[in-house]
Design a protein that fits this description.
By secondary structure, this protein is of the alpha/beta class. The protein has 16 helices and 13 strands.
């Protein structure tokens, strides 16, 4: 494979975890002599931007299209401060209702613009394959239609489940059947399917059939070696414990806060600690933190660019990790790999039988319990403080999870599939 057409709604200068996977894939494909053209969306209302990530972009060409989706329309009809306010202050339950009204997903208004841009590119250029990273799932439909029209191999990359996503509810039976039909068409048509976890692979096979097994490859999100180079380490005198990321769906700091309150009521919470949460948080999350009895131990920072986030996690003593128990066994966020690369201790509030737990234990992390288990969180927090005070434990870095290595595995698998 020498030339790829990638459809990715979330792409730099947008920020956040959903942007990292396609951007880093393009970067390391370029190092492997694969040229990538990217179709993405123009300016939208979004929780974060990351201009540093845009600076390191290695796409041969980026085509930014208009769209009729809500995030694109809102940026056109309102001032920047107003649309950001609308985005963050609208309760999640109302946004969920609005999202669920649309067939496929709320980005379906992007489809005609992607198709138009793709047709123009395909007239001018020769590609070896067309790829979509999903969600949004509209991207997958666009890639399927363009690949079928031009008789090219289709690659589908799952960052999140589609119809099997525990956080998605459907507006009607029609909406669900329509999405299931399209997901099945795309999976059967794809030459290559990549997923972020083993659990996701197994879920897709169980739901859509054994015949897709050989098409699917687990490509972990990993960490980028370049992000961890030339960092200035300047830790606080206090024991600093950080969480860098957002909360959504069932993922919440509520039980961790209750555990801290429990320790404080028992006079077991050390005075010399600082807990930092860095991200763009909805009003409900902020109110829960600032109105807690341990608010004086906690600092909230707004979301920062990815490079700064890496620098921040290296300038602390330990890290917090959250995955909700409800349908969380197969959840494997990209955050876990950057946490592992940091070499820091991790207090993991995740499903004990989940895939994230298995990877943490393989890399010698043992402070693990359910996100909702307040008593166990409190016990593990005290163990964490003991470990940090003793400073005897050293953690090795597993280079298997580097973005470079994961991209090599991706390309090898694609080339094997396309030459079968």
């Amino acid at each position: 494979m020498k030339r790829l057409l990638l459809i990715a709604y979330f792409y730099p200068p947008l920020g956040g975890p959903g942007v990292q996977r396609p951007a880093k894939l393009v970067k390391y494909l370029n190092k492997l002599d694969v040229s990538t053209d990217v179709i993405t969306v123009k300016n939208i209302v979004f929780h974060s931007t990351d201009n540093e990530l845009l600076k390191e972009d290695k796409a041969h060409k980026i085509i930014r299209t208009s769209s009729f989706d809500l995030m694109s329309i809102l940026v056109k009809i309102s001032k920047p401060k107003t649309n950001k306010s609308v985005y963050f202050k609208t309760p999640e339950k109302y946004k969920k209702i609005i999202r669920n009204i649309f067939p496929i997903d709320e980005k379906i208004g992007w489809l005609p613009f992607v198709m138009n841009a793709g047709k123009k590119l395909l007239k001018k250029n020769k590609y070896d394959a067309i790829m979509a990273t999903i969600g949004p799932y509209t991207s997958g439909i666009a890639a399927y239609k363009l690949a079928k029209r031009n008789k090219l191999p289709l690659i589908i990359d799952y960052r999140d489940h589609w119809t099997l996503n525990p956080y998605i509810t459907f507006f009607s039976t029609f909406h669900k059947k329509h999405s299931v039909k399209w997901e099945n068409i795309i999976l059967q048509s794809a030459s290559v399917i990549t997923v972020v976890s083993k659990a996701m692979k197994n879920d897709l096979i169980c739901e859509f059939g054994e015949d897709i097994r050989n098409k699917i490859k687990v490509i972990y999100n990993g960490w980028d070696t370049d992000d961890f180079s030339n960092l200035v380490i300047n830790k606080s005198e206090k024991l600093t414990i950080k969480y860098i990321g957002n909360f959504y769906g069932n993922r919440t700091p509520k039980f961790f806060i209750e555990a801290m309150e429990l320790l404080q009521s028992r006079n077991q919470l050390p005075d010399d600690i600082l807990i930092e949460f860095t991200g763009n948080y909805y009003a409900e999350t902020i109110n829960h933190i600032v109105n807690s009895k341990v608010a004086h131990f906690i600092k909230i920072n707004t979301q920062i660019e990815h490079k700064e986030a890496i620098k921040s996690l290296m300038n602390c003593d330990a890290l917090l990790f959250f995955i909700a128990s409800y349908k969380g066994e197969g959840v494997l966020t990209g955050k876990v790999f950057e946490y592992l690369r940091s070499g820091k201790e991790i207090l993991a509030m995740v499903p004990p039988e989940g895939e994230a737990t298995k990877i943490l234990r393989q890399n010698l992390h043992a402070l693990i319990c359910k996100m909702e288990d307040v008593e166990m969180i409190a016990k593990n927090f005290l163990k964490l403080i003991d470990v940090l005070n003793n400073k005897n434990k050293k953690l090795k870095i597993n280079y298997k999870y580097s973005r470079e290595n994961q991209t090599k595995e991706f390309l090898n698998f694609v080339e094997d599939r396309l030459t079968d």
